[in-house]
């Protein structure tokens, strides 16, 4: 699962990427500093994992991860190939969700590609380019579907109706994610990989003074996205970069306290990205390893087992499940069993976030 960081040139995308990952992207005060997309694998902060480590004392601990992609900055005309447009749009298409960085600070020393600070206008610039590309995709697909619909093909008629709704919305400047579709219809459109159909998280990049409460720029963005069903996070990206340079946890916490924060914004952002991808975590906990495993919300026990190994899913017999709160309450697997709190679940069980699981299988 990949999350792509997008935005106009020079809004802080690469600096944010560096905060989130160990990979150090080049960041500089000029457009198109990032040309090839940088890829980083980011650990998902989860205090539950730390608690399980304390209780089990394993040989190693492995957190859940998310892939973050830093994508080249987009400019007006990208949908027609301007700047690095075609490459930029292709990179977004490969991502499962989008983190959209908006510049919400004043600083005369950092140039803005349009010469003025207006995050709502910046957002609209990218929205328009993505919508234009999606419109092109929908119209191409419609050409093929229309031919089949003319001869009465029922599936083609369904698809035609759906595509026309998307076309109408995109022509009105409405992103694909705002078009309401049924479960069946969502399967029809999945293959199109519409850029504006991907879930989005807006990051308002502010200065240190606005890190806690935001500013007027953030208020404008919040108003602009109120009907989008999208999340917004306020982040002082340059300050976060300074925090990541500090060597000890204690130093980082003191810095955060000084600016009125209880946690690094980067940690909140990573968890939000995980949620944006419709992901959740279950745990395995033994003396050799405590590990967080990533599954999609709604996955069944056999699907969860398959994340460990495909044989686990093929030969699934049952899952032994402990609720995370019960594991913490009783302190160990054996005490949970004694208290009668370990459950045996079958193939239909839908895994809950935080379940501690052990699988029985036979291949």
Can you characterise this structure?
This protein has 14 helices and twelve strands. With 363 residues, the chain is an alpha/beta fold. The chain has a six-stranded mixed β-sheet with strand order 2-4-1-5-6-7, sandwiched between helices. A three-stranded mixed β-sheet has the order 3-9-8, with helices on both faces. Strand 8 (279-285) and strand 9 (289-296) form a beta hairpin. Helix 1 (13-20) packs parallel to helix 8 and helix 4 (119-150) runs antiparallel to helix 5. The radius of gyration is 23 Å and the shape is flat.
Q: Sketch the major β-sheet.
A: 6 strands, mixed
Arrangement of strands in the largest sheet: 2-4-1-5-6-7
List SSEs in N-to-C order: EHEHEEHEHHHEHEHHHEEHHEHHEE
Total helical segments: 14
Helix content: 40-55%
**What's the overall geometry?**
flat
First CA to last CA: what distance? Answer: 28 Å
Relative strand content: 15-25%
Structure class: alpha/beta
Q: Any idea what the radius of gyration is?
A: 23 Å
Contiguous runs where pLDDT drops below 50 for at least 5 residues: 23-36
Mean pLDDT: 84
**Strands, total number:** 12
Brief characterization of the structure:
This protein is an alpha/beta fold and 363 residues long.
Top keywords for this entry?
363 residues, six-stranded mixed sheet, flat
Sequence-ordered SSE layout with sheet pairings:
Layout: E1 2-6, H1 13-20, E2 38-43, H2 47-56, E3 60-62, E4 65-70, H3 85-93, E5 97-103, H4 119-150, H5 154-171, H6 183-190, E6 200-205, H7 216-224, E7 231-235, H8 237-245, H9 249-258, H10 265-276, E8 279-285, E9 289-296, H11 301-308, H12 310-314, E10 316-322, H13 324-330, H14 333-338, E11 343-345, E12 356-361
Parallel strand pairs: 1-4, 1-5, 3-9, 5-6, 6-7
Antiparallel strand pairs: 2-4, 8-9, 10-11, 10-12
Helix pairs in contact: 1-8, 4-5
């Amino acid at each position: 699962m990949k999350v792509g960081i997008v935005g106009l040139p020079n809004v802080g995308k690469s600096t944010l990427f560096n905060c989130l990952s160990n990979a150090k992207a080049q960041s500089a005060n000029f457009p198109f500093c990032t040309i090839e997309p940088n890829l980083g694998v980011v650990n998902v902060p989860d205090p539950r994992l730390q608690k399980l480590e304390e209780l089990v004392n394993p040989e190693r601990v492995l957190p859940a991860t998310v892939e973050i992609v830093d994508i080249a900055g987009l400019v007006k005309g990208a949908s027609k190939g301007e700047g690095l447009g075609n490459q930029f749009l292709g990179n977004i298409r490969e991502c499962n969700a989008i983190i959209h960085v908006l510049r919400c600070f004043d600083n005369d020393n950092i140039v803005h590609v349009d010469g003025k600070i207006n995050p709502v206008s910046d957002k609209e610039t990218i929205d328009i380019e993505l919508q234009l590309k999606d419109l092109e995709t929908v119209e191409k697909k419609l050409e093929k579907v229309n031919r089949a619909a003319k001869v009465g093909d029922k599936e083609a008629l369904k698809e035609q109706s759906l595509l026309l709704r998307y076309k109408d919305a995109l022509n009105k400047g409405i992103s694909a994610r705002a078009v309401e579709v049924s479960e069946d219809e969502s399967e029809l459109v999945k293959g199109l990989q519409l850029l504006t159909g991907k879930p989005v998280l807006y990051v308002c990049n502010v200065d240190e003074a606005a890190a806690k409460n935001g500013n007027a720029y953030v208020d404008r963005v919040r108003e602009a996205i109120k009907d989008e069903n999208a999340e917004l996070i306020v982040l002082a990206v340059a300050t976060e970069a300074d925090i990541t340079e500090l060597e000890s946890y204690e130093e980082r916490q003191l810095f955060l306290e000084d600016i009125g924060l209880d946690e690094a914004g980067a940690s909140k952002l990573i968890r939000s990205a995980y949620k944006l991808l419709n992901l959740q975590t279950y745990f395995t906990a033994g003396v050799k390893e405590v590990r967080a495993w990533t599954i999609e919300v709604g996955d069944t026990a056999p699907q969860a087992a398959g994340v460990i190994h495909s044989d686990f899913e093929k030969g699934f017999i049952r899952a032994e499940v402990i609720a995370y709160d019960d594991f913490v309450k009783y302190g160990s697997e054996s005490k949970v069993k004694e208290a009668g709190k370990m459950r045996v679940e079958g193939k239909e069980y839908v895994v809950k976030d935080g379940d501690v699981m052990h699988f029985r299988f036979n291949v």
